[in-house]
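sorry for the late reply, my laptop died twice this morning and i had to redo everyting from scratch. anyway the thing you sent over, i finally got around to it. pasting the sequence first so we're on the same page, its 414 residues, then the predicted structure underneath. double check i copied it right bc i was rushing
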Amino acid sequence: MSILERTRDGLRAHPLALDAVLAAGVLISMVAGSFVDPRAEAGPTWGVRTPSAPGLTLMALSAAALALRRRWPMAVLAVTTAFSLVDLVTADPRTPVTMSAVVALYTVAATTDRPTTWRVGILTMTVLTGTAMLVGPLPWYTQENLGLFAWTGMAAAVGDAVRSRRAFVDAIRERAERAERTREEEARRRVAEERLRIARDLHDVVAHHIALVNVQAGVVAHVMDKRPDQAKEALAHVREASRAALDELRATVGLLRQSGDPEAPTEPAPGLARLDELADTFRNAGLPVEIARADHGTTLPSALDLAAYRVIQEALTNVRKHAGQEARAEVSVVRVGTNVEITVLDDGAGDAVDADSDSGDTSGHGGHGLLGMRERVTAVGGALTAGPRFGGGFRVHAILPLTNHATTTAGGTA
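ok and here's the structure:
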């Protein structure tokens, strides 16, 4: 950093010192200007004159007042205007005391609003120019009076322009900072949404497999002594369900890995292609499940495919937990126009209130299953309804729209 830059930064950090330097510069300019006689004819001496002691005193006092122009701009303008009026009325020839009033007027215009600048600027120009024309020792039409009017008007205009530019720059900076904050908030919102999606995945996976493990563990405890072969089979199902749970948890948590992390999972998310495998896990747990598909070979986008799979998984998990030991479940996947409709029915005789509760019914009972299903279906633009069936059992019905999603069928593009 150069010496000039360091000096400028130091003066900006200490505005009072900067104003003192400005006051000293104005004083030097006024004193230098007071030695020039503008009414003298050009010659070898260039119209040199000697300023009077009262004139030097007025210049020193008005320049000293400028050191406080930032703190009290109106008061400094009033003081410098008063000194200028005294010089205009009494001095002959005049001294350039009005230079301090011009600087003070600029400060007022640069630090206040436009209406105030107009009022104060017009008042200052009128008072100084009117006094010089009507009361001063010079003729009213002299160029010095017109110059006084021009300088005060120019000071007000320049100060207002500087204030407008500062306001414009501040507005641009504020918009940039607001845009930066908006981008940060959007990034945080996306992170929160991603965490919520992963949490729903974890809930669906854990709830499904833990329910199966719980059922098979109950079977093991019941038949361990009398039918050890059946107990071994149930333990094998427990092992298979726990392994599947670990695999899906590993795949889901693997989505959080950063690029470059070792052994990132590449297994695709589950979908309707694994529906028969999903049904087999429930059949092994003692829940008869029938699958009926009439989706005409429709291949769903990954988001719809995962949502469909999770809805069926959560619905069957709730059937196994709440519908009773003798319950049966039916799953249908049907293509209807531009929608794929998924229906899960059961004929269980379990407590309907309990089933609603654990399914996440938002009518007043606890649980998160149904809430998670609704969020998944809503996220892809679909709709989900769930409730007790007439005559017993429970029904979950989801409509997943294919509109706005690229889907293909066995015969071509849907």
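DSSP finds twelve helices and seven strands in the chain.
thats about all i looked at so far, will dig more tmrw
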